[in-house]
C-alpha cells in the first residue's frame, strides 16, 4: 500500500466529509451539491483503488487489476459527474441524457475490460510509457483516453455553464474546475488518443513524446480541478477562522470589566465564573460566549449606575469612565455591607454612539481595556475586582 495513495485517500476522505457537512447546512445550493458529489465520487474511486491494493483483497483479483479497476471506476465517476452537471444546467433533460452518459460509460468500461483481457499476462496493467510493446495495451489506452477526451470536454462545458446558473461562491469553484478539465482534455487525453491511434493503425507515432510531456499537463489539470472543488471550503474555513480569532480576542478583552461586575453583582452571570486558565481552554461556541459576556457586562453596568458619583456623557474618555466604575464598585461594595448608600445619579456608562450591537460592544471593549489598565496597586483597590482576577 503506497504512502502517496494512502495520503490521497485520506485527503479525499476529509474533503468529502467537509463538503457533506456544508451541504447539510445549505441543501438547496446547486453549485455546492455538484462540488460535494465530485468529492464523494473521488473518495469512492480512491477507496476502491486502495482496497484492491490490500494483500488480503488483492488475491481475489487478477494481477495488475488495480490499473483496470482504476480506469473503470474513473469512467463511472465522470458519467455520474456529467449527470450531476446536466441536472444543474437542464433538469428536464437529465433523464434521457443521464441514460446516455451511463451507456457511454458502460461501453468504455466493456472496451477496457476486453482490451485488458486480450493482453498477454506479462503486459497486463502496463503503464502508458510501455503501451507500445503490445497492441492490446495500446487499445486499452486508446479506449480510455478516447472516453476521457469526451468526458473532460463535456464536463468542462457543463461545469462552466453550471457556474453561470449559480450565484454562490461555488461559481468561481466550478469555473476553475472547468479550466482544469479543459487542460486535461486538450493537453493530455486528446494528444494521447492521436498518439495511440496512430501507433495502433500505422505503427507510427504522429505526436512523439506524449508519454513524457502530457504527464505534467495532466498533473496541472488535476490540481486545478481539485483546487476548484476545494476553493469554497478553504475560503469559508479561512473566513470562519479569522472571525473566531477576532471574537475570542474581544471575549478576553471584556474579562476585566466583566469579572469585576460579576464579583459585585453575581446574579448577572448565567454560569459561575471560571479561572483565566480554564477560560483560555474554552474553544467551542465562542460567538455565543462572547455575546453572553457583552449582555452580562451591560446588565452589570445598569446595576452599577445608581452608585456612579457624577453624570456620564460622551465627553468622558474610557479612562475617565473606568475610574468612575472603580469608584462605583467600591461604593456598591460598601452599600452591600450596610456602610454606604446609592448616589442615585442617572448615568449610562459606556453609552453607544450609534444604534446596534456593534456600537454597544465597541464602547464596552474600550471601557474594559481602560479598566484593565488601572493600576492594581492604587490606594483604593476594589475587593470584587481583586478576587475576580486572582
Automatic annotation (TrEMBL):
Domain DUF6545, which positions?
Answer: 244-371
Q: Note whether Ubl conjugation occurs among the keywords.
A: no
Transmembrane regions listed in the UniProt entry: 6-24, 31-56, 68-87, 99-118, 138-160, 172-190, 210-234
Annotated Pfam families = DUF6545
Q: Which keywords does this chain's UniProt record carry?
A: Membrane, Transmembrane, Transmembrane helix
Claim: Nucleus is one of the keywords in the record: no
Query: Per its UniProt record, what InterPro entries does this chain match?
Result: DUF6545, MAB_1171c-like
Q: What is this protein called?
A: DUF6545 domain-containing protein
Amino acid at each position: 500500500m503506497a504512502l502517496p495513495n494512502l495520503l490521497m485517500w485520506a485527503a479525499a476522505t476529509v474533503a468529502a466529509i467537509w463538503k457533506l457537512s456544508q451541504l447539510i447546512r445549505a441543501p438547496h445550493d446547486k453549485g455546492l451539491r455538484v462540488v460535494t458529489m465530485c468529492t464523494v465520487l473521488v473518495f469512492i474511486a480512491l477507496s476502491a483503488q486502495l482496497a484492491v491494493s490490500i494483500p488480503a483483497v488483492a488475491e481475489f483479483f487478477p494481477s495488475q487489476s488495480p490499473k483496470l479497476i482504476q480506469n473503470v471506476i474513473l469512467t463511472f465517476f465522470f458519467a455520474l459527474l456529467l449527470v450531476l452537471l446536466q441536472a444543474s444546467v437542464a433538469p428536464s433533460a437529465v433523464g434521457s441524457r443521464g441514460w446516455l452518459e451511463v451507456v457511454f460509460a458502460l461501453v468504455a468500461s466493456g472496451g477496457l475490460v476486453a482490451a485488458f483481457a486480450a493482453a498477454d499476462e506479462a503486459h497486463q496493467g502496463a503503464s502508458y510509457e510501455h503501451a507500445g510493446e503490445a497492441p492490446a495495451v495500446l487499445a486499452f489506452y486508446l479506449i480510455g483516453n478516447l472516453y476521457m477526451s469526451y468526458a473532460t470536454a463535456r464536463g468542462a462545458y457543463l461545469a462552466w455553464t453550471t457556474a453561470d446558473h449559480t450565484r454562490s461562491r461555488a461559481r468561481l469553484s466550478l469555473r476553475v474546475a472547468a479550466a482544469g478539465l479543459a487542460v486535461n482534455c486538450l493537453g493530455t487525453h486528446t494528444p494521447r488518443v492521436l498518439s495511440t491511434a496512430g501507433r495502433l493503425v500505422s505503427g507510427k507515432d504522429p505526436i512523439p513524446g506524449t508519454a513524457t510531456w502530457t504527464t505534467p499537463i495532466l498533473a496541472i489539470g488535476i490540481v486545478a480541478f481539485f483546487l476548484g472543488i476545494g476553493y469554497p471550503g478553504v475560503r469559508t474555513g479561512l473566513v470562519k477562522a479569522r472571525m473566531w480569532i477576532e471574537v475570542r480576542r474581544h471575549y478576553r478583552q471584556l474579562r476585566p470589566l466583566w469579572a469585576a461586575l460579576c464579583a459585585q453583582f453575581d446574579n448577572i452571570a448565567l454560569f459561575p465564573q471560571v479561572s483565566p486558565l480554564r477560560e483560555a481552554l474554552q474553544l467551542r461556541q465562542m460567538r455565543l460566549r462572547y455575546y453572553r459576556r457583552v449582555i452580562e457586562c451591560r446588565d452589570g453596568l445598569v446595576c452599577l449606575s445608581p452608585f456612579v458619583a457624577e453624570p456620564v456623557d460622551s465627553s468622558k474618555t474610557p479612562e475617565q469612565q473606568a475610574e468612575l466604575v472603580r469608584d462605583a464598585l467600591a461604593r456598591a461594595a460598601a452599600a452591600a455591607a450596610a456602610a454606604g448608600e446609592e448616589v442615585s445619579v442617572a448615568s449610562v456608562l459606556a453609552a453607544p454612539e450609534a444604534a446596534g450591537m456593534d456600537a454597544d460592544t465597541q464602547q464596552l471593549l474600550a471601557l474594559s481595556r481602560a479598566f484593565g489598565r488601572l493600576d492594581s496597586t492604587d490606594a483604593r483597590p476594589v475587593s470584587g475586582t481583586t478576587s475576580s482576577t486572582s
